[in-house]
Amino acid sequence: MNTQSDAPRERLHPLTLMLRLIKTVPALAMAIIPAIAWMSESQQRLQTFVLFGCMALYGAVALPLILAHYLRFSYRITGKEIIIRSGVFRRRKRSIPIERVQNVEIQRTLLPRLAGLASVKIMTAGSNEAEGVLEYTSHQAALNIRDMVRRRDEPGRSTAAAEAVPSEPDLLAAMPLERVFLAGTFRFSLVYIAIIFSGLAYVQQLSGFTEQDLLDWIGSEQAETIASEARRLGWIIALATILITCLLAWFTGLIETVTRYYNFRLRRLGDKLVRSHGLLTLQEATIPLKRIQALVVYSNFLMRFFGWFRLELQIIGHDVSGRRSRMALPLARWHELAVVGPHIRPFVLPGTYERVSKLTIRRTFIRYAAVFSLIVVPVAFFFGSWIFWVFLVLPLLGYLAKLQYRNHGYRFSDNTLYIRRGVFRQHIWVVPAERFQAFMIRGTFFQRRLGLRTVSVDTAGAGYLRYPRIVDLPEATAHAVTSRLYAGLGSSVAAQPGQGLPAQVPASPTQ
Amino acid sequence: MQPLAPCIKQVWRLKIGLFWGVMLLIAAITDSAGLAKADRAIPLGVITGSALLMSILHFVVLPNLRYRFWRYELRTEELALTRGIWTRVHTIVPLRRIQHLDVSQDVIERHFGLGRLIVHTAGSQSSDVVLPGLHFDEAERLRSEVKHFINEYAV
User: From B78, which residue of chain A is nearest by alpha-carbon distance?
Assistant: First the structure.
């Protein structure tokens, strides 16, 4: 594929038609089944009528649409750009210059995978969403597109030099199956439980199965005995329900993790990271190193207790809240992090951190106690004042506040800012100075009374709730730290001229 | 550091006045809806009265306080801002991190000959830093100075 502008126009793989058709079946079923289920037996003729009506409508509208969409969709890849024509009612022609393509994601969900197909997402610097989606092409075609983007040289390099880029990436990390399982055991997800229960409720509604049916099935006498037993064992049953829910949540979290991170591999290819994983759905993402703004070492208290950590990336332009796209290592030992992490961006995790003011313990405790009282006082209003005994846990909150203080710290060395924060969920941010965007010193009314400030450094692609900040520094220290950080930005940008302003600006040729 | 142009207080006052005007109207309607009822949960005029009190407080006090704590300075390599009554925020935006700049002006600001400078960075919380209450010429001057710096730096 060279610079021929008359490269052939290609269509998606013909099996796409079938896959799209299959995809619509659940929607069709959702429409038809309730309509039928809510009609009684006597309305048999109406039932058939509705059924055939739906089918006819579906055949007349959905099928031609799928076909038209397929026929109208074509893509062409020249040496310079990817041109996608699409749209049934409104034609659209989109050309994506190859040098603007940052990332090609190949995703293979189960069915397309069985059919030998893949979907290709083409990401550019300008937008957070995929600029072009090819759903589906043959797997080989997907790989070709990916390789072509990989081979694309940095602007200015000759094509000969581009060939020299290694096609076999260095393996940074691979997760054996036991490790993936272990990663799953640290997951605890209530989301899937909610989905299962709402699914069951839906099925129950459709099937018309009621509690009375259940009683009839058991037999009224036996039901009576069961009910009286249940009343006697009320607490135990409640506890068992909670326990089973927890177990289910834990189990679904495990399954979800294993299917997602099965055969997890992180590789480095030149100036890009390549991440691939999946059991049923295979995913492969390419992340340019220069898009990575910060690294985050995450652990909850259970993981930390067993000595496990997780490495995430803060990537510019990626979905801020989406944890999936940020994952770099789902589960790793400390020393493994220390080996793999620096391949992404050189850093040395500090052994000790500089502490913030001790007054933060007082502030944290007051905050905890206030929140606690806000919960307890209304409860006491309804249940009687005996509930005030729970204030005996206040010393525990005090201890928690102290733990927060001990776990919070910062260090700025080798032009890298490290901030550790959190007890139950701990984040260690690793923010390179060349990624600093702006600096903020904040002081609330209460903080100012105690002479404290919060220092935060803004980076691209940071979250809005969890972002690196140093809370409750003495005012003078806050200003000193900020000017050190600011000087760090200056020297790091001066040291790497290529990493200055343009490195942060997504390099689009139109700018 | 420099304070804002004093007439920004008038702009804020006008905007607060507009907001509270609508609020007072709603309060008055709510109150008068209860006129006919004999058993009122809230005595007549309490809602309107408290709204009136709040609006006066807001109208008189807030613009002065806001103005008192707003400071800005364009230094050789960075823009520094300080603001906030309850939470004092001090922001430093390195000029080399600025992606682009806007000077804007709404109807009320135009009447007073004021403008605002909006600075965009690639950051998350500081993706657009707003500096209001500048004389329009001053805003333009700041913009061209920052622009000049960025162009110099890029070369």
Answer: A438
Percent with pLDDT over 70 in chain A: 86
Q: Which helix (H) or strand (E) holds A327?
A: strand A327-332
- Residue A400, SS3 per DSSP: helix
Low-confidence ranges of chain B (pLDDT < 50): none
Tell me the C-alpha distance between A353 and A422, whole Å: 14
Q: Which pLDDT tens digit goes with each residue over A292-320?
A: 889 999 998 889 999 999 999 988 765 54
Contact between A340 and A171 under an 8 Å Cβ cutoff? The reply is no
Q: What's the pLDDT tens digit per position in A54-73?
A: 888 888 888 888 899 898 89
Q: Which residues of A touch B153 (CB under 8 A)?
A: 500-501
Q: What is the pLDDT of residues A154-166, one digit of tens each?
A: 444 444 444 445 5
Is A440 in contact with B125 (Cβ distance < 8 A)? yes
Inter-chain touch A438–B126, beta carbons under 8 Å: yes
- B interface test, pick of A437, A484, A496 with most B CB neighbours within 10 Å: A437
Interface test with A, best of B69, B87, B124 (most A CBs within 10 A): B124
More confident residue, A43 or A301: A301
Q: Which residues of A fall within a CB distance of 8 Å from B88?
A: 442-444, 448
- State which amino acid sits at residue A94: R
Under a CB-based contact definition with an 8 Å cutoff, are residues A314 and A328 in contact? no
Helix (H/G/I), strand (E/B), else coil: A442: strand
Q: Is A230 exposed, middle or buried (0-12, 13-18, 19+ CB in 10 A)?
A: exposed
Specify whether the CB–CB gap between A331 and A364 falls below 8 A.
no
CA distance A142 to A151: 14
State the pLDDT at residue A40: 62
Q: Report the DSSP pairing between strands B98-104 and B114-121.
A: antiparallel
Looking at the complex, does the CB of residue B78 fall below 8 Å from at least one CB of chain A?
yes
Q: Which residue's structure tokens are 């052994």?
A: A351
How many C-beta atoms surround the C-beta of residue B55 within 10 A? 18
A404-453 pLDDT tens trace: 999 999 999 989 999 999 999 999 999 999 999 999 999 999 999 999 99
Do the strands A92-97 and A272-277 form a parallel or antiparallel pair, or are they unpaired?
A: unpaired
Residue ranges with strand state E in A74-228: 74-77, 81-86, 92-97, 101-108, 117-124, 132-138, 170-174
Look at residue A442 in the predicted model and tell me its pLDDT: 94
Give the helix/strand (H/E) hosting A60: helix A44-72
Spatial contact of A449 and A472, defined as CB atoms under 8 Å apart? no
CA nearest to B132, candidates B74, B85, B71: B71
Q: Is the peptide bond before A136 cis (omega within 30 degrees of 0)?
A: yes
Q: Which of A437, A490, A502 sits opposite B121 (nearest CB)?
A: A437
Beta-carbon pairs below 8 A across chains A and B: 85
* Chain A residues inside the 8 Å CB shell of B151: none
Residues of chain A contacting B99 with CB distance shorter than 8 Å: 504-505
